[in-house]
Specification:
The chain is an all-alpha fold. It is built from 22 helices and no strands.
Length: 480
């Protein structure tokens, strides 16, 4: 019966997405929803940027094992990313009226920079979307009591998300996400309240977690520990700023105020609401410590779904899995569209520059289909857990993309040579350490970030930007 309800929910989601797709009449509608969305819808989409499988299943399992110290990247770094993007990056990018971040690299630097950095952004999404697909497989596996394998569940879940994203683009993402966020908030609060009652009350759970040191989050004074903590924070907080899905959600806003404050408030809301699955997971460990210990040794990501199946009444099971599917699909749909749009707009168009609007729309939809296949294959072959997939996704953008974006927006002297050296030194040093010194005591993307910054400064001082006098240092301050 529970599985049947979940299937019905998936069918309804597809139907809503397909109805929303009727508003798509151009590539711009498909990618930015006509830049017409109000504050509540944009805030819901920004919140959903991170509130996905890794928040409910990934970081909750990490919290049981490591406490707050294991959550430096997410939710702390993830929430900080959204707040920084809203307060610092959203306004100047929104005013440029671009379709993708790759377009910015084109008008600020050149086509080669656009091609390389857009490719980096696309690659970073493989791990991120794979985490959502893995979670969908896990949900179907648990609900069917093993009848549906993880692999089969991944294929089914990915197919559902792909269908409404393929046809409706950002309009489908916006409408389904707004409705899914309502289900998430209500559903998780109801389930958590029931778990707290079983564990003896909210104060009892918090006191026990504090007594076990679960709320300690700062690093020790050991240099290696400090560098590891900083790497975890910076990888998400800075490495996820140059991401198309964040920019894409901001770019749907109907005006500048919505672009800035929906993003900022969405980040703050994410940080506080991410505490709900943490509390739920710790309550589960108090209610059934034997089950929790066994699953932590097998697969920690199963703790919450198994706890709900074995200890909650049927109606709360339906609420929880409905909310869980909502968080996964709302995140997966946007992050499936983002790399597909970037590839079509900033990679494919470099080889087919004369595409019409209709051809661009068709190519983007085909890219969504192909990228879905790649994501499912990566999810099936990957041995990483959900939290690790998300953490690893942003190393490439931290090392190679963050500095060119930030310098391009806020330092008019930043030049093409500076961007080139930034990319070569940042990605080069990071890849060298990853490949040839895998046992290094600290995260190599930190070195990549520093090398990228040095490359930008040196290159821009040696060969200054010829358009320094123009606003933002752009030759022609208009979108391509």
């Amino acid at each position: 019966m529970l599985l049947a309800l979940v299937v019905a929910y998936l069918v309804i989601s597809i139907a809503i997405g397909l109805v929303a797709s009727r508003r798509v009449h151009s590539a711009s509608d498909y990618i930015t929803a006509g830049r017409s969305l109000p504050m509540p819808m944009v805030m819901a989409m920004v919140f959903a940027t991170w509130f996905g499988a890794e928040t409910v299943l990934g970081i909750s399992a990490t919290f049981l094992d490591e406490g707050f110290r294991g959550l430096t990247s997410d939710p702390l770094g993830a929430a900080l990313c959204l707040v920084l993007f809203g307060l610092i990056f959203a306004l100047p990018l929104y005013r440029l009226r671009l379709i993708t971040l790759g377009d910015f690299f084109h008008i600020r630097y050149n086509k080669k920079t656009e091609l390389i950095l857009s490719s980096c952004i696309v690659l970073s999404y493989l791990g991120w979307v794979s985490a959502q697909v893995t979670a969908l497989g896990l949900v179907f596996n648990v609900l069917s009591e093993g009848t549906v394998t993880m692999t089969q569940g991944m294929i089914i879940g990915a197919a559902v998300v792909m269908v409404y994203t393929l046809f409706g683009g950002m309009w489908s993402v916006a409408v389904t996400t707004f409705l899914q966020m309502i289900i998430i908030v209500i559903g998780l609060m109801l389930v958590t309240n029931n778990a707290a009652d079983m564990a003896g009350g909210i104060s009892v759970v918090i006191e026990k977690a504090a007594a076990e040191g679960k709320f300690e989050w700062l690093p020790t004074m050991d240099l290696v520990d400090i560098l590891g903590w900083m790497a975890a924070l910076f990888t998400m907080a800075l490495g996820s700023i140059p991401q198309q899905d964040v920019f894409q959600r901001v770019n749907t806003s109907k005006n500048e105020m919505v672009a800035v404050w929906a993003t900022t408030c969405g980040g703050i809301a994410y940080f506080f609401f991410a505490a709900v699955p943490l509390f739920l997971a710790y309550s589960a460990s108090m209610v059934d410590p034997e089950m929790t210990s066994r699953l932590m040794a097998e697969d920690a990501q199963l703790v919450l779904p198994t706890f709900v199946i074995t200890h909650m009444p049927f109606w709360l099971q339906a609420v929880f899995f409905g909310a869980l599917l909502s968080v996964i699909m709302s995140t997966a749909s946007g992050t499936l569209l983002a790399p597909s749009v970037t590839f079509t707009e900033n990679v494919l168009k470099n080889f087919r520059p004369n595409m019409t609007d209709k051809q661009l729309l068709t190519s983007t939809r085909w890219t969504v289909f192909v990228f879905t296949l790649l994501v499912v294959a990566n999810a099936i072959l990957s041995s990483s857990d959900i939290h690790a997939m998300v953490e690893n996704a942003y190393r490439i953008t931290l090392a190679g993309v963050f500095v060119p974006l930030t310098a391009g927006l806020f330092w008019r002297r930043a030049s093409n040579l500076g961007a080139t050296l930034s990319i070569v030194m940042g990605l080069g040093s990071w890849l060298f350490l990853e490949i040839f010194i895998p046992g290094i005591a600290f995260e190599p993307q930190l070195i990549g970030l520093l090398a990228s910054l040095v490359g930008m400064i040196v290159g821009s001082l040696v060969s200054p930007n010829p358009h320094f006098a123009n606003k933002h240092g752009i030759a022609e301050p208009r979108p391509i």
